[in-house]
Amino acid sequence: MGGQIAVHTVLNSPERLAKLLLLAPAGFETFSQEERDWFQNFYTPAVVKATPEDQIIKNFHLNFHQFPDDAQFMIDDRLLLRQSSEYDDYCQMIPRCVQGMLQYPIFDQLPELNLPTLILYGAEDALIPNTYLHPQLTTPQVARAGQERIAGSQLRLLPAAGHFVQWEQAAAVNAAIVEYLQ
User: Fold this and answer.
1) Is residue 21 within 8 Å of 118, Cβ to Cβ?
2) Residue 118 belongs to what H/E stretch?
3) Which H or E run contains 142?
4) Which of 31, 73, 119, 180 is the most exposed place for a label (fewest CB within 10 A)?
5) Are 72 and 123 in contact (CB under 8 A)?
6) Peptide bond into 105 cis (omega under 30)
7) What's the pLDDT band for 39 if we cut at 50, 70, 90?
8) Does pTM surpass 0.90?
9) Is 115 left (phi over 0), alpha (psi -120 to 50) or beta?
């Protein structure tokens, strides 16, 4: 939820930043009260803890357009974490992060951003939008809806990239950032 946190930071301390860069930000997709309630009731620490190994692996694959071999360590680390005493803390933290996204929405506040903003999304992001709650929406639609609310912002949809756009399209993301910061 780093993009959403970054927007909150700018809104709370606009004098501290000159530019904003958002990579696949949460907060451009909106949720009704009914959808927020569903998340709160469904996505609990017990559900996270009970997630079977094959679903954990599938969930990691959903972050990518095409899962790269060099990202296998993410899966390995998560499966190792399940065997540790810290896993309970992890299972508590993840639903809290989702709840923070839902309880402190930013979509209506996006017009208050008054600084240059670059928004990058993987065009094949399988996490944004939530395909269960919003099967009719596409990543480009969600990205454009948020981008249109930020005056003077730029949006780039990078092909062959999922939610971890910085991983799958590292060269394109880095080039966009360098160009943007100049």
Assistant:
1) yes
2) strand 117-122
3) helix 139-147
4) 73
5) no
6) no
7) confident
8) yes
9) beta
Pairwise CA distance, residues 166 & 66, whole Å? 13
Residue 58's identity, in one-letter code, is: K
Q: pLDDT for 42-98, tens place per residue?
A: 889 999 999 999 999 999 999 999 999 999 999 999 999 999 999 999 999 999 998
110 CB neighbour count, 10 Å cutoff:
21
And the tokens for 40? 């709160």
What string of DSSP letters covers 12-50?
H-GGG-S-EEEES-TTSS---HHHHHHHHHHS-HHHHHH
Three-class SS of residue 158? strand
> Mean per-residue pLDDT for 156-167?
97
At 141, which amino acid appears? Q
Q: Which residues of 55-76 are buried (b: 16+ CB within 10 A; e: fewer)?
A: ebeeebeebbbebeeebeebbe
Q: How far is CA 115 from CA 13, 16, 48, 63, in A?
A: 12, 11, 37, 29
**Residues 2-181, CATH architecture:** 3-Layer(aba) Sandwich (3.40)
